[in-house]
Design goal:
Blueprint: H1 3-18, H2 28-32, H3 37-45, H4 60-66, H5 71-78, H6 95-101, H7 105-113, H8 128-134, H9 140-148, H10 164-169, H11 176-183, H12 198-205, H13 208-216, H14 231-235, H15 246-254, H16 269-274, H17 280-288, H18 303-310, H19 313-320, H20 336-343, H21 346-354, H22 369-375, H23 382-394, H24 409-414, H25 419-425, H26 442-449, H27 454-461, H28 476-481, H29 484-488
């Protein structure tokens, strides 16, 4: 990767971050006040950017739609250059996707009248129609508009091959929308690429009442789909709503569905549950049914590794006590200890270390646990980060070890854009002026991604040399001149010469 490519990546990332800095339009609370057109114009005159995208790809128009701001204000935003009706936002969705999501048929009509494209798919291969269905919209006027404007609802599907009928089924209480889709040509017995039909989609959602209604319609219950999964297996996966109850899972078993299932990827129900289900009774139920706690999936992950990443000490302890090899590694060379360092709290790390977790583990890329420690950092959890760091050091971890790509912890830490983190590791015996495999020092990286000069000044104060050039002969000052954020804020960078 050359210098120009690196610079472009850094500028893009920090540019996205900058777009959300001190911009009221990127605060959803502003749109919750249902501002008038006049208020929006006033905020623009005060310097708020009505077209900027934040780091997640949301802008003023999307937030206004999501917060159900009046359509007059939204239409005014749409009239501003930079807010074209087919502008790509979060997950490559245009505004008509969000209008459908918000059940705003009037705005959909306005967008379509202004040449909003209805043939586009987002990054998950959702069309406007399947996106509306997947998010539980039962307003048939939305789907009528989609059909009238070119969407072939019969053959339209998402990245998994699921059509609108399947996607909508999990949130339904009656058959009215199902009947609507059937009337438009969708087969009630249609299936996705993995062979999942309507019964499996409803089962995943935990909608027992609707499952009972499906049975009265004669919908078949598949023993296994193409991936070796059944409705019970799918129902053990967590969602934004949480996990299905043990009572519900037992209900599915009572329908003749096998509990002890291993899918073609090597996952069991316990792999699904271990990530976040904290109900020990549910976990014990599957253990009692013979589900193997030492089953390793295709990626090499054990049930314990899933639990160690984000679950509670009680759950980690349950599986650790049933695990044959606490230091089992997956295909990437990571273990349960790696997972705990990367994603969990210090008490989980301590527990696995006390169980014999290997402190000297190196992954297949050449990273030690120090890499995952830095990856886990967040300012909100800085106190627990310190505890994890001290635990690892006291157990023999060398934080000075060079990581993959010849990166020091300074190189890794700068990506977190946290002065607190840099101060936390500054006491280590690290070479502040070391170059990584891209020929960059931490100061080079800092000036390319900085939003202000605080981190740059700190690095200089602890010995970073501004005289070191890149492999392309660029100075720190040269790189800083290319930082559009520093330039847009008129920040004086002459001190870097």
């Amino acid at each position: 990767m050359n210098r120009k490519q690196l610079t472009a990546i850094f500028i893009f990332c920090v540019g996205m971050i900058a777009a959300q800095t001190k911009n009221e339009f990127l605060d959803r609370k502003f749109w919750q006040t249902n501002p008038t057109v006049q208020t929006v114009k006033q905020k623009i005159s005060e310097g708020n950017n009505p077209t900027a995208l934040n780091a997640y790809g949301f802008d003023a128009v999307v937030y206004a739609i999501l917060e159900k701001t009046n359509n007059d204000a939204i239409k005014h935003l749409l009239s501003i250059k930079g807010n074209d009706v087919n502008k790509l936002t979060h997950d490559k969705r245009t505004y008509v996707f969000w209008a459908a999501y918000a059940n705003n048929v009037e705005l959909m009509e306005h967008l379509i009248a202004n040449k909003a494209r209805m043939d586009l798919k987002d990054s998950h291969n959702f069309s406007v129609s399947t996106f509306a269905a997947a998010t539980g919209k039962d307003n048939t006027k939305i789907y009528d508009l989609c059909i009238e404007n070119g969407i072939d609802i019969k053959n339209d599907s998402d990245e998994h091959g699921a059509n609108a009928l399947l996607l909508a089924s999990g949130s339904l209480k009656d058959f009215s929308l199902i009947d609507y889709f059937v009337s438009k040509g969708i087969d009630i017995n249609s299936r996705d690429h993995d062979g999942n039909g309507i019964f499996n989609y409803v089962a995943k959602s935990g909608n027992k009442d609707f499952l009972d209604k499906l049975k009265t319609k004669g919908i078949s219950i598949d023993k296994l789909n193409k991936k070796g999964e059944n409705a019970l297996f799918l129902a053990t996966r967590g969602s934004r709503k949480g996990y299905n109850s043990l009572e519900y899972l037992k209900y599915l078993e009572s329908l003749g569905l096998e509990v002890n299932v291993v899918n073609k990827d090597g996952n069991t129900p316990l792999h699904n549950l271990a990530y976040g289900n904290k109900d020990l009774k549910t976990l014990q139920y599957f253990l009692d049914k013979g589900v193997n706690p030492n089953q390793v999936n295709e990626e090499g992950n054990s049930v314990l590794m899933h639990a160690a990443y984000r679950n509670s000490l009680e759950v980690v302890s349950l599986f650790a006590n049933k695990t044959k090899n606490i230091n089992h590694k997956n295909k990437d060379g990571n273990s349960a200890l790696t997972a705990s360092v990367a994603g969990n709290a210090s008490d989980i790390v301590k527990f696995i270390l006390d169980k014999g977790g290997d402190i000297n583990l190196i992954d297949t890329k050449g990273n030690s646990l120090a890499y995952y420690l830095i990856e886990s950092y967040g300012d909100r959890y800085k106190e627990d980060f310190k505890k994890k760091k001290d635990l690892l050091v006291n157990n023999g971890l060398n934080l000075n070890k060079i990581q993959a790509g010849k990166n020091t912890l300074f190189h890794l830490a700068i990506d977190k854009n946290s002065l607190n983190l840099l101060k936390e590791i500054s006491s280590l015996n690290l070479d502040i002026n070391a170059k990584n495999s891209d020929g960059l020092t931490v100061l080079h990286k800092a000036v390319m991604s900085a939003k202000d000069t605080k981190i740059i000044e700190y690095l200089l104060s602890i010995g970073a040399k501004k005289s070191i050039t890149t492999e392309f002969g660029e100075t720190v000052f040269d790189l800083a001149k290319e930082n559009e954020i520093l330039s847009s804020k008129n920040i004086d960078i002459n001190f870097l010469k």
